[in-house]
C-alpha cells in the first residue's frame, strides 16, 4: 500500500436515500478531480451516471439480498444480476408497485446489520475483498447505520484501512429499528461504530448533531459538523422559458411560479403547500404551482397530492421526475422554491441548489435546513412555522407581493449558496481526516496522510 490515500464510498443508491447518494458522489467527484484515487461500492441499487469518468464502481450487494429477514446469497448473486439487466425505470416501477416493499427491504437490511453481533459475514468478506483489490485506505460510509459492516471488516482484517462515519439520514434507519423492536440494540451499535473509528463522526448540520446526540445518546465531542456541498450553478442568462413549456405546456411566463422540487413522499409535506396555495387563491393572489420529483416508496402519496388538489379545486402543474435541463430552468424562472418538509431535515440540498441559481426559498423553521437559508442577519429565503400551512401562506404572500423583500433575498442567494460548494466540502473532509491536498510531494503522494500507525494512534487517543 502506498502513502497516497484511496477513498472508497459505500452508498445506497436508491429510495429515501437518494439525497445522501448525491452528496456522496459530489464529494467523490471533487476528490477525484484533485487527483485522489476514488472508488464507489454500491448497495441495493446503483446510479453509475453520478460518478465522474475514471472512478471505478463495484456492486457490493443488490436490493433482493434483503428480500427475506436473513440475507439471501442466491437472490443477490444469481437472480438480482439478471433483474438488473432491465432498465432502472422498469425495476423501480415493479418494486414500487408492491405496497411496502421498499420499507421491507430496508427493515431487513437494518435487522441484518444490527440484530446480532454477526453482521452479514458474507457481505463483510466481499467488502474486504474489494478493499484489498482497490488498496483502500479510507472507507467512507454513507450512513452510520451501515457502519457495522465497516467495523466488522476492520476487526476481521489486518489491511491498513479505516472507516469514516457519516450521519446524514440515519433517522430513517432508526425508524426501521424501532419497528423491528431493535432500537436499544441499534443505539448501542451506533456507539460502537463511532467509537471504532479514529475520527469523530461527520454530521451534516449543527441541528442534526444535536438531534443525533439526543436521540441516540451519543457524545457530542465524538461528532463534527461538515456541511454538504453542491456543484454551484454558473452565472448565466436564464434558460429559455420554452424549456419549461416542453414539460409544462400550460405554464405561463408572466405569472409568478412557486415550485416544489424533490421527492414526492409523505415526509416532504407537499400537502401543506397545497393548502397554503388554496388560501392564497381564495385571497386572489396570482401564482402557478409546480410540483415535481421522483418517489421512493411508490405513487400513493403522489396520487394523494393529485386528489387533494382536485378537492381544493387547485390547478397544479404536477409531474414526476424531470430532466436536469428542465430542473435548472425551473429554478431560474420560479419566484421561489418551497420545501415544506414535515420532518426535521438534516440538511437541504434542494434549497442550496435553488439559491445557487439566484432563487429565494421558503423552508420550515425546524432542522438543519434553516442553517442553509440563514446566516445571522443575512438570509437567502424565509422560514415558516413548521407544519403550519397558514403561516406558509403568509410567507409566500410576502415573497409574491413585496418586490423589495424579494429583491433583497435574491441578492443574498448566491452568497448563501457559496458557503456550501463541493470544493468547500472536500476541503473540510480532508482537514477532518488530517490530509493536506495542497502539500503534494514530488512522487505524487500527499502530505499529512495518516498511515496505519497514525490511524491506530489516533484511535487510541480517542478511546
Rounded to the nearest angstrom, the radius of gyration is: 22 Å
Straight-line distance between termini: 26 Å
CATH superfamily of the largest domain: Glycogen Phosphorylase B
Q: Treating each run of at least 4 consecutive H or I residues as one helix, how many helices?
A: 19
Q: Which regions have little confidence, pLDDT < 50, spanning 5+ residues?
A: 439-463
> What is the CATH top level name of the largest domain?
Alpha Beta
The tally of strands reads 18
- Mean pLDDT across all residues, rounded? 91
Helix content range of the residues, please? 40-55%
Task: Estimate what percentage of residues fall within beta strands.
Answer: 15-25%
**Sheet with the most strands: spatial strand order:** 11-10-9-12-13-16
The class by helix and strand makeup works out as alpha/beta
The appropriate CATH architecture of the largest domain is: 3-Layer(aba) Sandwich
Shape: globular
Provide the CATH topology of the largest domain.
Rossmann fold
**Biggest sheet: strands, sense, closure?**
6 strands, parallel
Q: How many domain regions?
A: 2
Pfam family, one: Glycos_transf_1
Domain Glycosyl transferase family: 249-414
GO molecular function, one term: glycosyltransferase activity
InterPro entries: Glyco_trans_1
In a nutshell, what does this entry contain?
One of its GO terms (molecular function) is glycosyltransferase activity. The protein has 19 helices and 18 strands.
Topology at a glance:
Blueprint: E1 6-12, H1 18-33, E2 37-44, E3 56-62, H2 73-83, H3 88-96, H4 101-114, H5 121-134, E4 138-141, H6 147-155, E5 162-164, E6 166-167, H7 170-179, H8 183-196, E7 201-203, H9 206-216, E8 223-225, H10 242-247, E9 257-261, H11 270-282, E10 288-292, H12 300-311, E11 316-318, H13 324-333, E12 336-338, H14 349-356, E13 361-364, H15 369-373, E14 374-375, E15 378-379, E16 381-384, H16 389-401, H17 403-418, H18 422-433, E17 436-440, E18 446-447, H19 452-462
Parallel strand pairs: 1-2, 1-4, 2-3, 4-5, 6-7, 7-8, 9-10, 9-12, 10-11, 12-13, 13-16
Antiparallel strand pairs: 14-15, 17-18
Amino acid at each position: 500500500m502506498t502513502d497516497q490515500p484511496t477513498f472508497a464510498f459505500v452508498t445506497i443508491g436508491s429510495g429515501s436515500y437518494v439525497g445522501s447518494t448525491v452528496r456522496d458522489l459530489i464529494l467523490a467527484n471533487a476528490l477525484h478531480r484533485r487527483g485522489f484515487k476514488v472508488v464507489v461500492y454500491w448497495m441495493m441499487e446503483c446510479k453509475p451516471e453520478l460518478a465522474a469518468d475514471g472512478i471505478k464502481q463495484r456492486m457490493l450487494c443488490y436490493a433482493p439480498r434483503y428480500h427475506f429477514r436473513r440475507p439471501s446469497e442466491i437472490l443477490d448473486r444469481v437472480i438480482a444480476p439478471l433483474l438488473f439487466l432491465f432498465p432502472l425505470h422498469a425495476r423501480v416501477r415493479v418494486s414500487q408497485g408492491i405496497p411496502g416493499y421498499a420499507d421491507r427491504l430496508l427493515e431487513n437490511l437494518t435487522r441484518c446489520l444490527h440484530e446480532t453481533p454477526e453482521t452479514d459475514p458474507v457481505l463483510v468478506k466481499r467488502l474486504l475483498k474489494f478493499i484489498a483489490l482497490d488498496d483502500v485506505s479510507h472507507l467512507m460510509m454513507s450512513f452510520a447505520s451501515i457502519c457495522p459492516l465497516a467495523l466488522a471488516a476492520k476487526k476481521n482484517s489486518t489491511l491498513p484501512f479505516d472507516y469514516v462515519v457519516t450521519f446524514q439520514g440515519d433517522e430513517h434507519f432508526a425508524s426501521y429499528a424501532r419497528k423491528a423492536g431493535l432500537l436499544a440494540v441499534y443505539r448501542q451499535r451506533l456507539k460502537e461504530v463511532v467509537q471504532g473509528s479514529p475520527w469523530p463522526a461527520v454530521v451534516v448540520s449543527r441541528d442534526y448533531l444535536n438531534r443525533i446526540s439526543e436521540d441516540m445518546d451519543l457524545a457530542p465531542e465524538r461528532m463534527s459538523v461538515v456541511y454538504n456541498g453542491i456543484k454551484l450553478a454558473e452565472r448565466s442568462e436564464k434558460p429559455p422559458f420554452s424549456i419549461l413549456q416542453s414539460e409544462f405546456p400550460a405554464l405561463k411566463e408572466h405569472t409568478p411560479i412557486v415550485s416544489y422540487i424533490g421527492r414526492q413522499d409523505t415526509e416532504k409535506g407537499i400537502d401543506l403547500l397545497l393548502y397554503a396555495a388554496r388560501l392564497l387563491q381564495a385571497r386572489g393572489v396570482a401564482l402557478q404551482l409546480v410540483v415535481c420529483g421522483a418517489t421512493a416508496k411508490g405513487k400513493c402519496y403522489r396520487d394523494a397530492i393529485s386528489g387533494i388538489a382536485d378537492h381544493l379545486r387547485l390547478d397544479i402543474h404536477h409531474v414526476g421526475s424531470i430532466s436536469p435541463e428542465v430542473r435548472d430552468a425551473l429554478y431560474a424562472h420560479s419566484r421561489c422554491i418551497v420545501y415544506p418538509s414535515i420532518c426535521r431535515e438534516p440538511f437541504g440540498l434542494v434549497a442550496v441548489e435553488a439559491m445557487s441559481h439566484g432563487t429565494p426559498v421558503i423552508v420550515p423553521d425546524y432542522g438543519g435546513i434553516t442553517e442553509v437559508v440563514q446566516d445571522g442577519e443575512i438570509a437567502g429565503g424565509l422560514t415558516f412555522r413548521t407544519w403550519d400551512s397558514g403561516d406558509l401562506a403568509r410567507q409566500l404572500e410576502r415573497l409574491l407581493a413585496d418586490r423589495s423583500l424579494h429583491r433583497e433575498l435574491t441578492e443574498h442567494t448566491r452568497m448563501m449558496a457559496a458557503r456550501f460548494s463541493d470544493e468547500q466540502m472536500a476541503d473540510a473532509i480532508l482537514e477532518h481526516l488530517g490530509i493536506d491536498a495542497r502539500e503534494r510531494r514530488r512522487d505524487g503522494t500527499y502530505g499529512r496522510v495518516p498511515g496505519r500507525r497514525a490511524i491506530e494512534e489516533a484511535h487510541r487517543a480517542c478511546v
